[in-house]
Amino acid sequence: MSETQADPGLSGKMYLYDKPELINPEQHADLGFQRIDKPFGFCAKARALPLTISEVPAAMKDYPVIFVSKDQLVPMAVVGLIDDVNLFVDENGNWEKNRYIPGYARRYPFGVASETGGSRIAIVIDTAFEGLAKGGEKPLFAGGEPSDATKQAIDFCTNYERDRLMTENYARELAKYDLVQGQSAQFTPTGSAEPQTFAEYFGIDETRLKALTDEQIVAMNKVGLLPVVYAMMMSLGNWRTLLQRRAERFGISEAEALTRKIN
């Protein structure tokens, strides 16, 4: 999930964006937003969404928060199991009320592209978004300048990018302690003596965390790592509720929800 800028165009891929373009009045002056039936339809098939470090304490209440891999310490909110179905987006394309919505989804169809090895950023927009159309009631530009709505989106994206860079710094610090290991989520169905694995992921290894020296714990706390580490560990209790959510969504038993693929 890289977001890269290659002046004067855009290169690389952006997760969930089908046709990202650098936003500019020459190309997009006649575009505006219109109401659509399914506002979160663009991420209805997502199994996980990226988080920034500042989002983890809020997201841990609703989702298992894991890492992409040992080499990519990007926090991810898990929203689906087995199928390509976001279990928090209903059939009408709405995110379930009173659940934390990751900023990555809230900023869409806007996003940020950054140059490789540089510090410049540019705002992009997914022109494939069905809520974006010529003559839309909420224009992107007014008089050749970004409209108020676009300015608000740009501010949100800029702040999100700042948090994303903080998250990269967090990842570099966390990597020093080699705490992230492969793990599995398991459930023992009624009538079974053996637990079954229904998800494999990368997370904080509690044994390794306990083995750290007092000096290492103090060092982690000074840079703000400990609260996030503990929040991620606590979030893993949501694996069971996610499994239950899948069973309820498809009208199947928890035992079937462990392995039965629906889509």
Please describe what this structure looks like.
The N terminus is likely disordered. The chain has nine helices and 15 strands. The protein has one domain. The radius of gyration is 20 Å and the shape is flat. A hairpin with a 2-residue loop joins strand 1 and strand 2. With 263 residues, it is an alpha+beta fold. The strands form five sheets. It has a five-stranded mixed sheet with strand order 2-1-8-9-3. It has a three-stranded antiparallel sheet with strand order 10-4-11, with no helix packed on it. It has a three-stranded antiparallel sheet with strand order 5-7-6.
Spatial strand order of the main sheet: 2-1-8-9-3
The level of helicity is 25-40%
Structural class: alpha+beta
Order of helices and strands: EEEHEEHEEHEEEEEEHEEHHHHH
Q: Span between N and C termini? A: 24 Å
How many separate helices? 9
DSSP, total strands: 15
Low-confidence stretches: 1-10
Give the overall pLDDT as a whole number: 90
What number of structural domains do the residues give? Answer: 1
* Main pleated-sheet profile: 5 strands, mixed
Global geometry: flat
Strand content: 15-25%
Please give the radius of gyration in angstroms.
20 Å
Summed up, what is this model?
This protein is an alpha+beta fold and 263 residues long. It contains nine helices and 15 strands.
Comma- or semicolon-separated keywords:
263 residues, five-stranded mixed β-sheet, alpha+beta, three-stranded antiparallel β-sheet, flat, disordered N terminus
Topology:
Layout lengths: L3 E3 L2 E3 L8 E3 L2 H4 L2 E3 L14 E3 L5 H4 L5 E3 L7 E4 L24 H4 L3 E6 L5 E6 L5 E3 L3 E2 L1 E2 L2 E2 L1 H28 L4 E8 L8 E9 L1 H5 L3 H9 L2 H11 L2 H13 L3 H4 L6
Parallel strand pairs: 1-8
Antiparallel strand pairs: 1-2, 3-9, 4-10, 4-11, 5-7, 6-7, 8-9, 12-13, 14-15
